[in-house]
Amino acid sequence: MLWSYSDLLLHDMGTALADPVEHGRPAHAPAPSEPHRVTELVHAAEWRTAPLWVLDLLEGRPGHRFLHDGRARTLLEAALWHGGEAQGARRRLEALPPADRAALVAFLRSL
């Protein structure tokens, strides 16, 4: 069995992670194939939760960055960028003592 450690759902990640809007839709949203056809609209700040497996293989690799646009260099930095629905979780992470933060990152690397 493979555990993805993700719900694979869309979540509002806050304005700090929002993409710019192009022609009334987020830049990452698919363009409608027909002008009169209604397609699934994705808010510019909504992102699908990525699976967290193989994080240990990614962090520290030359050129690898985290988040949808690569703005985070480390797992901890990626977590601290979260806002929107994750604002409460980010506050709890910020309040953790350094040793507990390190333990959390070590757990993520173990996935």
Radius of gyration: 16 Å
Helix and strand run: EEEEHHHH
How much of the residues is beta strand, in percent?
Answer: 5-15%
Oligomer: single chain
Properties at a glance:
alpha+beta, 9% strand, 111 residues, two-stranded antiparallel sheet, 4 helices, two-stranded antiparallel ribbon
Q: In words, what does this structure look like?
A:
With 111 residues, the chain is of the alpha+beta class. The protein has one domain. Helices cover 30% and strands 9% of the residues. It has four helices and four strands. The strands form two sheets. The protein has a two-stranded antiparallel sheet with strand order 1-4. Strand 2 and strand 3 form a beta hairpin. The longest helix is centred in the last third of the chain and has 13 residues.
Summed up:
The chain has 111 residues and is an alpha+beta fold. It has 4 helices and 4 strands.
What's the layout of helices and strands?
Blueprint: E1 10-12, E2 21-22, E3 25-26, E4 46-48, H1 55-58, H2 75-81, H3 87-95, H4 98-110
Antiparallel strand pairs: 1-4, 2-3
